[in-house]
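Severity: low
Component: inverse-folding endpoint
Summary: output formatting inconsistent between runs
Steps to reproduce: submit the following structure tokens with default settings.
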């Protein structure tokens, strides 16, 4: 598996190589006593990921990373990351929520960071607060963290004031990098809200799926979804049943049966496809439900983009609780990736969900989008009702 992911040095972002940088972050988050796993980091959002070397070198630690480029102009970098077989996508960070559920990452990483987190009253920083789990880290490597010339000290002071208002604690600042931790401190949040240091979000701001929702300049109060249970490390996390699944009609018995079903189904799929495990690297589950398909692939040398359609219930939170990655999406629109990206598409009951969406969203359009993002000579798995259909792109 290392031969699939290993690149010498790590990339231009890391002067002494990505492994040295990752170990340094582990030292900074654990007072020199451990690595990122011992700091409780198992899922990372890498903002401005470049060619995703950070993600590649986290793989030996079994840390899953959603690498994304915050601008459309970085498409060539995302293309290279995906060619390496690393999970990545474009997701512009501007006026809308990012297409990920709240409280899903133990670390948000931004190296050589050019995002203006301090602007507009810190509205983008508050979006990171939505995405971070309690006791999660924000890693910021940019000139304001270490330079004293130009406007950098002013920017740094704004960042410190904003993070303090959100009750984040600055735990380390050295070698051009600053790290904050999102503290689990409701009394601090309530006090700062009373002091009008930030606006409190309406209760409905965090309901449903975070797809095409406008950003709001506010902080979510109250106990978060992920903090109702202590999540174990991977791979044990793959078996986690989230209490929130009951709210969308999935009890623990159904959760277990879904996991067993996909273990058997994946073995059946590979027998039918008659391919080597190493022939497939990039997989997309277009209607992931609770991530059973991705869990069944966990021992394979692949990564899975778990997509939950925006018009369905928010099961993506449960997918992240299982230590997996994914995004919300509306399949009436193109997915944010370049052509010929994925080796395998899995569409379980996707067409039956979209068959009555009206003239503006035809099944033919979804098929064309699947054709766009699928590599030639590779596979589509389509499950309609109780019938499984496997086709290669050349057969369609």
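Observed output (run 2 of 3):
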């Amino acid at each position: 598996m290392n031969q699939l992911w290993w690149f010498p040095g790590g990339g231009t972002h890391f002067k002494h190589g990505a492994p040295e940088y990752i170990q340094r972050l582990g030292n900074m988050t654990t007072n020199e006593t451990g690595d990122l796993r011992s700091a409780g980091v198992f899922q990372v959002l890498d903002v401005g990921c470049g060619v995703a070397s950070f993600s590649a070198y986290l793989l030996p630690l079994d840390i899953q990373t959603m690498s994304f480029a915050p601008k459309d102009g970085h498409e060539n970098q995302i293309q290279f990351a995906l060619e390496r077989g690393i999970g990545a996508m474009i997701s512009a960070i501007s006026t809308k929520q990012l297409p990920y559920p709240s409280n899903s990452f133990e670390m948000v990483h931004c190296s050589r960071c050019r995002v203006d987190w301090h602007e507009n009253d810190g509205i983008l920083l508050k979006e990171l607060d939505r995405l971070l789990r309690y006791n999660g880290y924000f890693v910021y490597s940019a000139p304001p963290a270490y330079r004293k010339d130009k406007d950098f000290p002013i920017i740094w002071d704004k960042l410190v004031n904003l993070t303090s208002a959100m009750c984040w604690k600055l735990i380390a600042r050295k070698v051009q990098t600053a790290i904050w931790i999102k503290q689990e401190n409701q009394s601090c949040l309530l006090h700062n809200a009373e002091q009008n240091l930030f606006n409190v979000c309406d209760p409905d701001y965090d309901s449903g799926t975070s797809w095409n929702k406008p950003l709001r300049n506010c902080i979510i109060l109250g106990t978060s979804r992920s903090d109702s249970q202590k999540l174990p490390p991977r791979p044990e996390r793959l078996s986690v049943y989230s209490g929130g699944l009951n709210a969308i009609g999935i009890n623990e018995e159904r959760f277990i049966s879904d996991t067993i079903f996909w273990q058997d189904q994946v073995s059946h799929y590979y027998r039918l496809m008659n391919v080597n495990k190493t022939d497939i690297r990039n997989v997309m589950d277009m209607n992931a439900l609770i991530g059973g398909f991705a869990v069944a692939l966990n021992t394979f040398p692949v990564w899975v983009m778990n997509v939950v359609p925006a018009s369905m219930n928010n099961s993506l939170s449960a997918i992240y609780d299982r230590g997996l990655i994914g995004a919300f999406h509306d399949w009436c629109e193109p997915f944010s990736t370049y052509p010929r990206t994925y080796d395998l598409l899995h569409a379980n009951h996707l067409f039956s969900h979209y068959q009555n969406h009206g003239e503006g969203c035809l099944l033919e359009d979804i098929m064309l989008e699947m054709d766009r993002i699928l590599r030639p000579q590779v596979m589509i798995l389509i499950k309609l009702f109780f019938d499984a259909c496997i086709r290669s792109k050349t057969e369609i």
